[in-house]
Give the backbone structure.
Amino acid sequence: MSTKHLLDKEIAPAIEAFPPLDISLETLEPMRADRSMTPEPADAAAAGVRRKEIHAPGLKAGQPPVRCLAYLPETASQPIGGLLHLHGGGYIWGSPEAADPRSVQTAAALGVAVLSVDYRLAPEQPVPAALDDSYAALAWFHRNAEELGVDPSRIAVGGESAGGGLAAALAQQACAIGEFPICFQALTYPMLDDRTGGPEAPADPLTGEFIWTRDNNRFGWSSYLGETSPQAPCVPARAASLAGLPPAWISTAALDLFRDENIDYAQRLMRAGVPAELTVYPGACHGFQMATEAQLTKRYFRDYLDALSRAVGSAGRSHASESDG
């Protein structure tokens, strides 16, 4: 059953032109090598942002350093807030470079430090590698907060798709350990539940036609989990309790395969007493932001920046116009 008629008219052309993602062990490496889906780096200097590569020590003995891209606003009044960003890609591909324009925009618009993590990918490195790398980056952010001019009590975590799921997992782990606090979660159609699209939870047939399908989801999760049984925090939806987690902003799309697991997670947060804001964008699907000029995309980025601004402070900058680009 086609759901093309349900797509927002401004979004539909970009989505229909996007080639289907036929993901398998045979196609994964060529996909990673294909840079056509990676945007050109932003002009960070023109935006008043200093971009630099850092390497955080691995979390455990024998683990490699974690490469990150740091984005530091040049003129913001210190102390500033921070965002630990985790890129999307189904846990199997992607990089901080893919999010570079938005990382620059976020740092410039809000006057916050952004640390974007190049975590290890499955299936070569299944759980808990990505979560270990994310926690190592969070630890580095906190330990270097003074040098960066960052208020460690105002460090948020966020990401899109698998990055959103990893951000939710990191929030659960950080909360359980209690060493490096996270003040906020900004989750964009997060990948939270390994059961979605399978026999246990086939999901609404009106979801999952575009970009990230049921087949892709099963491959992503099986690659990520490897031989490990699915459990929290690596599978955030399987957590027995969400009590005590930081406040969250969760956005999802009406035609996204993750829609119902996202709504359920937001409801569980609310029932656990965690402040949670949920937005479902009508006529949108996974990856709808590739239609950069669509009004719905511009609305999403305004909402995203507004949520982060309220959580980590904006240094008094106006970001409404910048989020329209």
Remarks:
- The chain has nine helices and eight strands.
- Residues 86 and 159 are 5 Å apart (CA to CA).
- The first strand starts at residue 49 and ends at 56.
- Confidence is low (pLDDT under 50) at residues 315-325.
